[in-house]
Input
Amino acid sequence: MHISTNLWIWIQALLTLAIFTFLYKDNPLFRMAEHLFVGLATGYGLVVVYKNAFYPNVWVPLFQEKQFIFIIPFVLGLLYLTSAFPKISYMIRWPMAVLLGIGSGLSIPLTIQTYIIEQSKSSILRPPYPDLISWINALILFVGVVSVLVYFYFSIPHDRPGVKQISKVGLFLLMLGFGASFGYTVMARFSLLVGRLDFLLNKWLGIRPF
Amino acid sequence: MSVRDFFIKLSKIDRKYIYLVILIGLIIPLIFPPRFPQKMSPQVKRVFEYIDTLPKGSYVILSADYDPSVAPEVHPMYKAVVKHCILRGVIPIGMTLGVQGAGLALDAFTEAERVLEARRDTDYVFLGYQAGGAVVILGLGEDIKSVYKTDYFGTKTTDIYALKPVKNYRDIALVISFSGSALPATWAVYAYTKYGVKVAAAVTGVSAGDFYPYIQAGQFIGMLAGMKAAAEYEDAVNRILKEKGIGKFSTSAIRMMDANSIGQLLIILFIIIGNIGYFLSRRRK
Output
């Protein structure tokens, strides 16, 4: 056991323990650590955005290289700040209109292609398949997609013969999906806790694994 | 006390005792690791083998689109993939679409410098953060150096030796988005669909389920999902390090996954006990 002598490790460890105190109940120590995190994350974010985004993309081309075309995005960006001044806050609509227009134009065709066309294509049965396992996989996928779509199709009553049975298959497959998703969630939540415990034991207290 | 009463009592135990049992169950394997074998799952294998068989001097974009809140799961993956690329002579281009990913990615490259004696701008490039999300992804498809005029350290990208032959996605063999959010899907939309570049995802366990349809549709070549994938990839990279006689293994993900496995076993046990107690108490009524 070699307890760390690094000041930063100690700060990390004490802040981790401060956050863990919430397990008992809300308290000033927890709130202090929480506020410190929010403040630090914001400050860090501002510095990185300035250094990696604003300085090379706005300051250098506009003020150092005198490329005056950059005035247009710069002014549009500044107009976002008008939301703080009620008299001229309507101006925020202009950069938002530009952003929404460009964003929609870029994303609509690609989104339809990615989410609807490509993914629908992959769920259609397209024999022949190289082996039995591939056949079974394709069938499960096909039946799964159809039955789940029927389960969520509410324009016809679900008590009709055929529809009832298919939607039940869909429900069963949905439950399987939720179960798998829950398993992943348990692993993910444990991972976060284990990550902190590993830090406290290994880096802070210096308890090396045997 | 009958067996029935025992189970009913156990199913109504105060949750604080359950927390305590899980805490002990997680701490013990961290101190005494059981070292469970790591068998690579098919999705992880696809990514590993793809990188493993790339010609030397190929380029891979590793986008650190995650933050410290998911670092225990995603950061070991990023570190392992960076090392794997460098060990195979593939040049990783590090970048991030999230502000807080910059520091984490830098940590991974610093470790690669220490363990593998990798050289910045020769064995790897770190471009850092760029604001814009989807616009950045689209811009990289046209000209990487116009999106990133300088790298993270302020060096002009036109002056970086390793980036000389790189113009856009046509020169990139693979993009991996490491994320705790939906950003890998954004890469699928704007990089794969529009430019046809190969994409893979490295994600948290919570979001893994959302990305399986992309693998099925061939939009991702593979996926690293959660701590399990991190441990599998770390183990595979350790084997390469052993082959090359480099002894500086990393076992953090493997160790954490061992503890995770014990924790999950305990949860399964609690669910079974809880259900037995529930059914027995119903029968009594």
Observations:
- Chain B has eleven helices and six strands.
- The first helix of chain B runs from residue 3 to 11.
- Chain B has a mean pLDDT of 92.
